[in-house]
Amino acid sequence: MFQIASYETFQDGQIIFEDGSNGDWIYVVEEGEVEISKNVGGLKIVVEILKEGDIFGEMAYIDKAPRSARATAKGTTVIGTIDRTFFDTEFNKISADFQKILKTVAFRLRKSTQRSVEAGRGKGD
Fold it and tell me: What is the domain-level CATH number for residue 91?
């Protein structure tokens, strides 16, 4: 399905990427699990737990904005990094109009996730 450029093994609790970091890569969970979380007002909010075959890091790659959450290994986890040249080639085959649609969807998902996280945080206040 995807051309994988490299594999990396992470141990339990090891950070794969931080919220706000540069989004140059898209990843696939090959083995184990990845926790996607946000820190809001000093409270960690788990957005999602990803399992084998799940893709992550795509929003920052598509909309070129900083990463919107932290990715952390749960247990021993093997991550495949999708080859950037492969992905760029495939993405650039899509028309400019459709690329704009995908970027808009990524931007709206980013905003929606942030609002949901903030609303969830507000419940305990």
Answer: 2.60.120.10
